[in-house]
Design a protein that fits this description.
mainly alpha; two-stranded parallel ribbon; 2 strands
Length: about 70
Amino acid sequence: MKEILPKVKVAVLQAAPVLFNLKVKLGKTCKSIFEAADQGAQLILFPEAFIPAYPRRSTWWGIMLDLISSN
């Protein structure tokens, strides 16, 4: 007999993170959660590192891109 699994409504957020401002970052996150929940989402997927984020110069490659673009 085939098992029937319950359906789950999923929301996928596509938005840029807020850098260097925790209060605004958390406000944006909470607003996104409430908006998705109001539309019936049971699971919300955020981009990788949406909360902590990665500042552009936090990686070696980001530093190299800055050096290249400044020349």
